[in-house]
Amino acid sequence: MIEFKNVSKSFGSTMALNDVSLVFPRGKIIGLFGPNGAGKSTSIKLIMGLNRPDRGEISVDGEDPQNKKKNLAYLPEIDHLYSWMNIAQAADFTRTFYDDWDEGKYRDLINFLNLQEDMKIAKISKGQRAKAKLLLTVCRRAPYLLMDEPLSGIDILTREEIINTLIRDYREGEQTIIISTHEIAEVESLVDEVIFLDQGKVKLSGNAEDLRIERNMSLVELMKEAFRNAN
Amino acid sequence: MQTSSLKKFFKLYSKEMRELRPEILIVLIATLVLDLFFYFKFRQYPGMIIVPSMMILGLVVLLPFISSFKLLGREWNSNTIYLLLSLPVKGGSILGSKLLALLTQYFIGTVTVTAGGIFLTLLMYPEPGLAETLRQAQAAGIDTRISTMLSSGGLFYLMSLAGMAYLIAISFFSQLLGKMVTRFSGVVTAGSFLATFWLMGKLMTPIWHQLLTNFSQLHMNQCYFSVAAFNKLIGINTLVILAGTLIVYIAAVLLYNHKIEL
Question: What ipTM was reported for this prediction?
């Protein structure tokens, strides 16, 4: 379980998260939704230990995120792989650091995603880079998978492949997936729990199905309503 | 099966060596080209033997220092810092692998230049020949035994290696300080480099001064050059530089582990 206790984080005069308390339950797919600048990426980076809270506390299974990095698989929005590497070299680099690397899954997924090991990161398209990043992240049997805007700037066919990969390899009850995105419609069918963030605060959170039934709305409509009321 | 820390460190080190490959190749090619050029163009002027080696030596000393800024700074410029910071390794391994790769670059460069220099010397050494010159120096009371030259040369080389590590550690420390601010990162890096260099100099100068005083009292009354005393001085100097390197390196690792954010 990942827990935020009264977490605040600011960058200069911009308050990214403002006294946020949250629980990300284990074994679920959790959607972290909100418009640009809502604090989604900051939340993911705080869990990953790439940022530190100004106030409050974050714990991953009761421990400081800095000590749990081996249990966290992270897919950032930006291209973070070494551009001189090819996919095989990037996989070799990654597998050295993680004992949960699943070689069978890697071999299987590289075909499923239509990638080749000798593809050089610098020379492949944006969609292929997104798939390569996804490949290296989901090939690990990490208890927590953190995805920051995995569909951003990706064409519709690649989006479908990414979502299918997630559905295909998700281990329900064992693995926790946190997907931060403002493109809710694409992942609506995936998520079990939702957290709507706006201007560093939680606007709405709960079980996705319960919210849909209770309000008789899709998650996209729910978000629109939540933010319309907020403004 | 759990991957050992050593294997992780070696993987990081291999990555850094791959990043330094172009600079290493530049030194190798420049040495070869310059040595050949001097051999074929200035064969009749044996006094020029030293020139290509000295020219490349400048490059060899300068390149690891410049590369230290490239190796760390590029992680931010190419966003690969996201990958590095998410790895389950601490700053000691990240910065240690970069430091070791830069020292390897320095080692390869100096060995190449030395080998080129020795080769040119053997080919171009003027009359009466190298062996005869060594015999004459021995007759004049200079210790020209191979073991002596190797021990003094080796110690001197170790001191230069420690000096390079010292400069790289200050470079890492100042770059990390620069990365902690969102604006004027380059100015902060340059300012903190100079400030750290000055501060460490202030810290180390009294120690050097004390050592030199002791050394003078012990050896200046002797009318001949003592190799053992020279070696001792170099050895102590190396230790002082290494201590300075360790202080700055630990400060850089602590910054990386506790203050660096994205």
Answer: 0.91
